[in-house]
User: Fold these one by one.
Assistant:
Number 1:
Amino acid sequence: GLTYLVFPGAVHTRFEHSLGVYRLAGEAMNNLQKYQGNELGIDRIDVQTVKLAGLLHDIGHGPFSHLFEHEFLPRVNPGSTWSHEHMSALLLDSIVDKHSIDIEPDYLKVIKEMIVASSDVSTAEGVKEKRFLYDIVANGRNGIDVDKFDYIDRDCRACGIGSNFQHWRLLEGMRVMGDEICYPAKDYLSIHKLFTTRADLHRTVYTHAKVKAVELMLVDALVEANEYLGISLHADDPEDFWKLDDTIVKSIETAPNDELKKAKEIIQRIRRRELYKFCNQYSVPKDKLDHFKNITAQDIVCSQITSKVLLKEEDVAVSNVKIDLTRGKDNPLERFLMLVPPCYSFTCTLCVIFQVLTSCLFLL
């Protein structure tokens, strides 16, 4: 995304992250194979499919990662259900067909199911054999997966955020019982740190006021350029989608077309650090979360007290940010199993529920 403009060390890419997830997925599989390989029937194909799912799980991200999916597309296609997980699966099919890659259709199907395992289109719940394999890269059951292990460590280090989450403890301790991955009871604090560190990253890095200001500006620029460049149309076809990347900004900047004048001006403001001004934020009380509607620019304008300067909707941008421990108001630690000697499992319930909804106001 655009975090590097505020945290200069955050220049790592999805490619590096994908390599990291590939490596950690391999470590997780090697560990399970070492201790339970015969019991679980883990073979070379299982190891290979999980590692490939880790390597390819994020190829469907658009320009500037989640900004494209959660900010830009909903603006130009209201009600859009587009997801990068689904696009990753479509791109994988396209790559296999285009390059005539020799892979068994059943293995390809499993890799795609592993990629979308934590998304709304997941079919993992219907899997009858080795269901635990679908929880290693993208865990839709409790959110504990190697994808988080990698980006939490990588982002904390790059942004200078202190973290004492130790993913290796979970990799070494994971075992399978009842077709579900479990962890030693002594590691419950490591799992707690996984979720709280993720929440800290969202609060202090990903939703930093300056980061959000830059994101709002870039989305405005992309929306202005969309009608002329047809950016959103590329999201419908994997054959076109792969051509979209962060260089779209440079393409807009250097284009001679008058139709892109407004988009260019916004990008130039970003270059000059003339960012939207952060004005205020409001944290929604916990007891009002269920009935709170997202604040809009219209709400801000309509609530003005008469003064010499009256804001218009085009002068205001509002960012509604929700931060939780991956499962909304639910306790994520209620959905994972812990191992206690000699060898039985129980569900852990030790966790403080954390959910914050904040609305931030910016002046354009």
Number 2:
Amino acid sequence: MSLTVSRCYCDSQVKANSDIKANPLFENRNPRALERMGIARKVQGWKFQAPRKDFYHKLVYDKIKMTAYVVHSSGKIVIEASTKEPAVLKYLYKHNDVSASWNLGQLLARRMLESGITEVFYDAENKVTEYEAEGSKPSEKIEAFFSALKDNAIKLSEPEPVKFETVPGINYEGYTRLGERKRYQEDYQKL
């Protein structure tokens, strides 16, 4: 049995999609699109405010209760996973050992990928200072949880926000046009 493969050969002079034009009045109604590009505003808060608020999605992991969840900047829990869920618990020997922590990371990573979240904020600075104060390294549970997340291509840092050159608002120090004569223009807003 032979397989037939059909191929499309394009003329090199004809550009693909040259006849398609974008709609200039397009309105993107997906609220997460701007967050993924790093254009959406982050709530800054104060410098020494605790807990931090400058994130789109924050990862919270509790190794005592063996739960992990992702919180949106609005304060709502987006994704949640626990080793005490009946579907997970029946496959585990214990619900609070190292393998359970690794499986919790796998489960949360799968749910995050299914919902389209690939980058989350994790406040590692506070955790590292806790371990340095104790003089020890992170526990095996924490290392297993985060290795499961990294194996599934979840980044523990968010995209850097895009900084625009111009800041919207009134420039009180710049040139004013109050003394000028009014001029008629065909198009006041150039696209």
